[in-house]
Amino acid sequence: MHQKNFTFQSALPQAESQDSFIDLDRLMAVVVRRIRTIIFAVAAFVILAVAYLLTATSSYTSMTQILLDESMTKYAEDQPPAASSQQADMEIASAVEILKSNEMALRVVDQAGLSDNAKLLNPPQSPAALLKSGAGLIASIFTPGRPPMTPEEQREAQRQKVAAVLQDGLKVERVTRSSVVAVSFSSTDKLLAAKVTRAYADAYLTDQLNANFDATERASVWLQERLNDLRQRAQEASLEVEKYKADNGLTSTGGELMSEQQISDLNKQLIIAQADTASASARYNQYKSIIDQGPDNAVRNATISSSQTDNSVLQDLKTRYLAVEKREQDVTQNFGADHPQAVALRAERQDITRQIYQELQQLTASYKNELDVAQSRAESLRESIDKVVGKNSEANKSLVHLNELNQKATALKTLYESYLGRFEEATQQRSFPIAKARVISVAGVPTAPSSPKKTLVMALSVILGLMAGAGLAAFQEFRDRFFRVEADVRSALGLKFLGYLPLLGQQGKTRKKARKANAGAEPATAGEAENGVAFERMMRISVEAPRSIFAETLRNAKLASDVMLQGRADRVIGVVSALPGEGKSTTAANFAALLASSGKRTLLIDADLRNPGLSRTLKSPPQAGLIEVVLGEVPWTNAVKVDPRTKLAILPVVVRDQLLHTSELLSSQGMQHLMENARKMFDYIIVDLAPLGPVIDAKAFAPQVDAFLLVTEWGATPTNLVRDVLEQEPQINSRILGVILNKTDMSELPRYSDFGGTERYRQKYVSYYTEAQPRAQVDA
């Protein structure tokens, strides 16, 4: 099988687009990854829709249209002003509610003789309705019984039931924004549907005629009584007004009292006087502020609009001043300030300044006089108004009561005229009983069932299936918190990604079943050769397939160690994982075999003292190992085994039941002495350590290690677990070379990569991996 290793990545993180709210590439990747879930959900909903269509009862709908037309009464009554759109909407909404009302349903039952209709009293029921009725029957057993009904009560109950059925099958709605109301009725009998719809149209028109006639009749009787009362009250109010005016001597000119007219005239003059005072005060204050600046500043800084003064002398002086000043500046610039001509021009400018200042003083005095005159006139007008107001106070008291009497008389007169007009209109309308509605579409007998709508049901089932599938896929995606691609390693751990080790000897579809079946089982022993893999075979996977993705990932790990441990003659690399069973022993064995086959002096130490899976795979069980060497029972050179093909030195472990404190053994002086001797003889020392999560052996041995290689199972180890374990062990986290994703299902890997991810293009590099992959891998 040709496979590729994606270990080359840019040292800088890829910039993510911040312009779009939704990452479409990632969304499409999720859809492709979960397409089977979505298809399953759609298929399930389609099956449910087909089952519904096969069991549902066909229903027929007949429809009629009624036009609400105000113009039909234009010859019988005066046309009211055009109603606003809101009023028209309210009238149409009222008509819709009338058609839906229980009173209208009872009228249809009586007019069409439907009170004994068996199809309305006992319509075919759906499975849901049958379940509901069955539950009602069961509930009725436990409810107290009612007294028997009389024949009249039974007929009324039957009539009300049929009316309720009509209301349930009736549909009334406005046609778009028009004045047309569509009335439709659905039933399992097409003829019955047409009959009920026509009966509703006839009942509505009859109701309109009866309502108009009854309303005008009641209005005429009531208006006649009100007119008699209003006529008498209006006459009495008018006589009372005239009597009060005569008793109080109130005279008026032009509709108001003379004193009020005088006050109005004086107020107008006062407003003009106040405006003149404000204008004179503004001019005076402006010129006074100019004079207060002194002669030089008044001429130089003051700006006076030509519209504020018509003094031609001041304008001429200002023009002369500017001309002399400009000449003085030119002479001073060319000949100096002491030049005779400059001195003469300066004296002339000062003289003009004095003249302008005098002229401004005169203008200021004149504006002061104008201000005084305007203020005196305004004060005089105020005094006149106060005198007139005092004289008019008594007349105003009488006028208040007079206005009240006038308002009462006017209101009664207006009300009487209004009621008289309405009475005449009501009298005329009684002879023209015309409805303001007509049928524009007669209800016909339907030819095809209206429900269930097969196309709509199927389309809706597909849409609901897509929504449910999308929700389920989103839920699965949310719960998928495992390492899948290189980006997961970088984002969750912030560590270098070294590559993928493919799942060998198993298909991707059965990998989870195999993992569950092997959970908790002891590693394979030498006697289980047909089910496991011999040590020589397991550690030579990278050697037998040197151009495989398996070997390429381990070469990347070697390159990372060369960069991180550059300058060291001897290197101790610990291979760890967060949980047991992630394949760290297989990775350690192959990494060591790859180093040894490249000519490096390499020692592989099985330091997983509690579960030495690496040592159990040896064909011949060792007689002595790491424990005996650390305890000083045998020399370490006697316990080391050498692979004749790769020249790899292996220090196994002999399990002892009475060994309890493995962490103390790994941090003991004997272990330190062993590592010192091994560093002198080997270039690389690969140590297979216990998992970080359950035991502390790796933490105890950490001071002896130069760097760590972290092995994580693809799609099985939670990202939060690995991150938490590393955060708790900073002394290990800071020395990790990188992360290897083990047991990767290479056929499923592209589905977890975003569009543009390197994992999607592994087939492009298939020619770089031409050697056959090994057929098995041991979980250890």
From TrEMBL:
Keywords: ATP-binding, Cell inner membrane, Cell membrane, Coiled coil, Kinase, Membrane, Nucleotide-binding, Transferase, Transmembrane, Transmembrane helix, Tyrosine-protein kinase. GO terms for molecular function: ATP binding; non-membrane spanning protein tyrosine kinase activity. It is found in: Cell inner membrane. Its EC number is 2.7.10.2. Signal peptide: none annotated. It is a multi-pass membrane protein. It comes from the Bacteria. Residues 405-477 form the Tyrosine-protein kinase G-rich domain. InterPro entries: AAA_dom, Bact_polysacc_biosynth/exp, EPS_ExoP-like, GNVR, LPS_length_determ_N, P-loop_NTPase, Wzc-like_C. It catalyses: L-tyrosyl-[protein] + ATP = O-phospho-L-tyrosyl-[protein] + ADP + H(+). Residues 22-111 form the Polysaccharide chain length determinant N-terminal domain. Gene3D superfamilies: P-loop containing nucleotide triphosphate hydrolases. Residues 220-247, 357-384 form a coiled coil. Its main location: membrane. Belongs to the CpsD/CapB family. This is non-specific protein-tyrosine kinase.
